[in-house]
Specification:
Elements lengths: L1 H31 L9 H10 L1 H9 L8 H19 L2 H25 L4 H14 L5 H33 L6 H29 L13 H4 L1 H9 L2 H18 L3 H21 L2
């Protein structure tokens, strides 16, 4: 009996050693396999950013360095132009826009007259000229409005956001490449584009510039125009967009989502407050 045990032990050790070699061989083979670039596509990103952002951006982070941002960014621009077209072709909204613009111009001219910078006659002339160009039915005004949307999306929503994201990920010591930052932002902006369409339709239905935000609970007359505009900007889609953007940036940099989300939200709210109350 003892002799059988002695003979079986070397055999068992040999079998275990063979199994370990096979496991190591399989792991080595898996690591050496190239990443299948076809496992992620622009279409996957466009759908996944709405349905499963975490899995989508995790797949993106595993891909070789590649530009995916062009098509989603073009979609965002086209949707922005379409939303503007809907607003500009609604008589109630354009009338509201003209009234708001005229009120602002009158306040500016009155302030200049009060400070002695210009006479009342000069103020009237300048106001007449300004009102002419700020008329939503004016061709020049329409061209400027469409051009400004393209400018805003590319310069502010895309490039400026990528700069903030780059700085944040650097400070948090993430591992990333800049191309993937652009990819994540472009896909996340599709949520902002969806918000633009929804808010345009909501505004047309309500006859005023509205969004799904705290602004729905107040009137400008009750809280003031600036605070109303600020509350109108911080909407449900803004929180959603910021959350998805943070998930994407965390996935491509191997960082936690929460710190990125908090920082990005503070930056967005801070910039919104600055441009709303300072001008």
């Amino acid at each position: 009996m003892d002799e059988q045990n002695i003979n079986s032990e070397p055999q068992e050790n040999k079998d275990t050693e063979i199994q370990n070699r096979e496991v190591q061989s399989e792991e080595s083979t898996e690591e050496s396999l190239p990443v299948d670039e076809e496992s992620f596509s622009v279409g996957d990103g466009i759908v996944g950013v709405f349905t499963s952002p975490k899995e989508t951006f995790f797949s993106l982070s595993k891909m070789p360095k590649k530009t995916y941002w062009v098509i989603p960014l073009l979609i965002v621009i086209v949707v922005g132009l379409l939303s503007n077209f809907l607003r500009m072709n609604d008589n109630e909204l354009t009338s509201k826009m003209q009234t708001m613009s005229a009120k602002k111009i009158q306040e500016q001219m009155a302030d200049k007259v009060k400070k002695g910078e210009i006479t009342q006659e000069q103020a009237n002339q300048q106001m007449e000229q300004a009102l002419k160009f700020s008329d939503p039915k004016n061709a020049f005004f329409k061209i400027i409005s469409y051009v400004s949307i393209i400018f805003r999306v590319i310069l502010f929503s895309f490039l400026l956001t990528s700069l903030f994201a780059f700085i944040i990920l650097k400070i948090l010591q993430g591992e990333f490449n800049y191309t993937n930052i652009l990819n994540v932002i472009a896909f996340a902006l599709l949520i902002a584009a969806a918000a633009d369409i929804v808010n345009a339709v909501l505004s047309i239905l309500m006859g005023d510039f509205k969004s799904i935000s705290l602004g729905l609970l107040f009137k400008p007359e009750a809280i003031g125009d600036k605070l109303y505009n600020f509350l109108n900007t911080i909407d449900v889609f803004t929180i959603w967009y910021t959350a998805v953007l943070s998930i994407g940036l965390a996935a491509i940099s191997k960082l936690k989502t929460l710190p990125i989300f908090v920082i990005m939200l503070v930056i967005f709210i801070g910039l919104t407050a600055f441009f709303t109350f300072a001008f």
